[in-house]
């Protein structure tokens, strides 16, 4: 299935190969904008590009894209919905769409789709909208976007379109071979990355518990990793169980790994957990869901603008997506990303 669905207040047409479903299968859920959105006194229609996770085309979230388009179109917006067979083609189409400078670029899916969106719009004036329908949805959690109710997330997006976009920081990572990638929330580069790699290869379970189970399974191979960390020019050699770099606080579906990280403070939080035995790791692990693990003296948090991470045999994961083997250089880019999210309260 491939093509671009173009929507205006007057018509809804398919450009490209028709997906081949029946009219009943193509019918979107009855999702409407909130009363507060509909009562806007000065409505300004926007040109919006919506990118849908290709892996959701036949899953339980396949109706989310049409539902979002239906709601935005009912409000009077001009919507282009991108549907591609794989991420590679989606990247090509998304780049072309962002170059046309739409009023918003919206992604529908999990953190992988959010990372795609961040890499499309960071450093541009195009704001990123998020309708989370994945398992972790960590960036949505950080931004206060409803992450467990699709209808509420669509309504939140519709309301955010009526406000100025929020400006936040983004992080830019560069590998030693010159590859670069933006991320919005978190990079993991240790035991946590190994667990992430295991979780991404697991078929079951499908929910957010998959990462927790992967952590427990990976625990059997827990070992010290020798790092060289260069933080704001200061070089340190240290052993650790895991290292995370947070622009936001959340990882793995709500674990507050870097609980003091703020997406708009111009800093990154570098979490370093000293080498732990399996028993001690399991004692600390439950406290991460409330961010209380940072009270343990074996857990350090450094606030920096730049960090270089070096370690043998470790792969860095950016927003849950495999990026590159260490060494990796990471720096914060203050104000590099505009997002459509609830205002800070």
User: How many domains comprise the coordinates?
Assistant: 2
Morphology call: globular
The number of distinct helices, counting runs of at least 4 residues, comes to 10
Record field, number of beta strands = 20
User: Which fold does the CATH topology of the largest domain refer to?
Assistant: Tumour Suppressor Smad4
Structural class: alpha+beta
User: Any guess at the CATH architecture of the largest domain?
Assistant: Sandwich
The helical percent reads 25-40%
Any idea of the CATH class of the largest domain? Mainly Beta
Task: Name the helix and strand elements from N-terminus to C-terminus, one letter apiece.
Answer: EEHHEHEHEHEHHEEEHHEEEEEEHEEEEE
Largest sheet, described in full? 12 strands, mixed
Strand content: 25-35%
Radius of gyration: 20 Å
